[in-house]
Amino acid sequence: MTTTVMILGAGFGGLELASTLSERLAGEVDVTLIDQHDAFVFGFSKLDVLFGHQDAEQVRIPYRRIRMPGVEFRQERVLAIDPGRRHVVTDAAVYDPDIVVVALGADYDISATPGFADGGFEFYSVAGAERLRDELAAFRGGRVMLAVLSIPFKCPPAPYEAILLLHDQLVARGIREDSILHLVSPQRAPIPVSPWASIALERAMAARGIAYTKHHRIYGIDPDARVAQFKDHDEPYDLFIGIPTHKVPDVLVEAGLTQDGWVAVDRVTLQTPYAGVYAIGDCAETGIPKAGTFAESAAHVVADGIVRSIRGAGELASGGTGLCYVEFGHGDVGRVDADFHADGGPTGPFLGPSPTYAAEKAEFGAARRARWFGA
Ligand SMILES: Cc1cc2nc3c(=O)[nH]c(=O)nc-3n(C[C@H](O)[C@H](O)[C@H](O)COP(=O)(O)OP(=O)(O)OC[C@H]3O[C@@H](n4cnc5c(N)ncnc54)[C@H](O)[C@@H]3O)c2cc1C
After folding, report:
1. Which site in 137, 161, 211, 359 is 20 to 30 Å from 67, CA atoms measured?
2. What residue numbers bound the domain in which 30 lies?
3. Is residue 371, in this structure, part of any structural domain at all?
4. Which atom, in ligand 1's list, is nearest to the CA of 79?
């Protein structure tokens, strides 16, 4: 008898889990992969949209291209989950699978920062990246503030990548000297797992005259006065870019799957407190940063768990590993080899930055595109 598996969310984690189950358990599982959208977009493609290297249509990879034996993709929106009964309701059907894997990612809570919806810009969504791209085209110089508005957020390097790439763009347009770039973050270091990458990023910003205020938060902005509000003072800006507050999709809160805002899982098996219900990627609280590369390694842990539950034996991957590529501008990319479960504590050796890793990053994207979509 085949085991039915429902994967909720066809993002980085859901796609990797579907392709791993297709490879390892063909004929033993029927996998249904659900997503509300009709196409996948890599997180890093949003930087390409922001800086005009590709448009929104070019970065979309349609789900209809999925060709994985034993996997059926359905474009549906998940409306409710009863984890105790493994019962899933979408806008098109109801399901009672043997195994449910929640991979719904993180949503943005723009309203969590007063003034941000009215006067701020973001590039963490494709629509936001397009809007900011157009705003930058009209920008003629001034004070740009880029602020991480709360922790946790996806892809810890992304704010630093954006400000370094913005520096390059303003230089190319001849308006860098008319601009002040300032990055603000509540974190104590750009990439806490990697002191070497953090130092490299801090040096890169300093070398380009980019101001960096760490371990400080912005609580709101006043779009009329054009000031950002710190705890004890205000600072003026002409263009405010925020990394929005992240939150788990509402459907997971309503399902009773969350604890302290994120889906609670066993950190070894990634199973929720409910039998046969797992969570991977950005929606889950695993003590590991939110990034596609870690969603992928979580997918391998759950794939092992499903193999073990079907065959009664098998190793469980440790998860928590991943390669993070970091854009430094000038065509240079660095690489952090993160391992959050290393003996002796998390490690993150850093390589580069150099054009070598730019080529490797392109290969990283192409390999996943080929694996998940066959092209
Ligand atoms: C600017 C930027 C740059 C980044 N760069 C990198 C990088 O270089 N390397 C890296 O590893 N990571 C990077 N990331 C982070 C990466 O994109 C995410 O961490 C990763 O996509 C998380 O995978 P996931 O499967 O958990 O969630 P997602 O990939 O977000 O997938 C979740 C899916 O669930 C679907 N969904 C949500 N709610 C519902 C619902 N109710 N019904 C149906 N479907 C639903 C969504 O449509 C989505 O497709 C970057 C992110 C950004 C914003």
Report:
1. 359
2. 3-106+248-320
3. no
4. 41
Task: Tell me: pLDDT of 75 over 80.
Answer: yes
> What tens digit of pLDDT does each residue of 270-287 get?
999 999 999 999 999 999
User: Do both 239 and 256 map to the same domain?
Assistant: no
Which among 96, 117, 83 has a CA at the least distance from the CA of 253? 83
Task: Using only the alpha carbons of the chain, give its radius of gyration.
Answer: 21
Q: What is the mean pLDDT of residues 323-346?
A: 95
Closest atom of ligand 1 to CA, residue 123: 1
Tell me which residue has its CA closest to atom 51 in ligand 1.
43
Distance of CA 292 from the midpoint of ligand 1 (Å): 7
Residue 357 lies in a domain: no
Question: Ligand 1 centroid vs 88 CA: distance in angstroms?
Answer: 21
Query: Is 0.90 topped by the overall pTM?
Result: yes
Contact 95, 32 (CB under 8 A): yes
C-alpha to C-alpha distances, 246 to 15, 49, 79, 97, 243, nearest whole angstrom: 22, 21, 20, 29, 9
The helix (run of H) or strand (run of E) holding residue 106 is none
168 shares a domain with 91: no
Q: What angle do CA 156, 160, 163 make, to 5 degrees?
A: 145
> What's the gap in Å between 191 CA and the centre of ligand 1?
19
> pLDDT for 88-117, tens place per residue?
999 999 999 999 999 999 999 999 999 999
52 pLDDT higher than 80: yes
How much is the average pLDDT of 56-85? 97
pLDDT above 80 for 375: no
Q: How far apart are CA 199 and CA 243, in angstroms?
A: 21
Ligand 1: centre distance to CA 170 (Å)? 29
pLDDT at 313: 84
Q: Is residue 350 part of a domain?
A: no
- Give the model confidence (pLDDT) of 184-193 as tens digits: 999 999 999 9
Question: How many angstroms is it from 42 CA to the middle of ligand 1?
Answer: 7
Q: What is the CATH number of the domain that holds 16?
A: 3.50.50.60
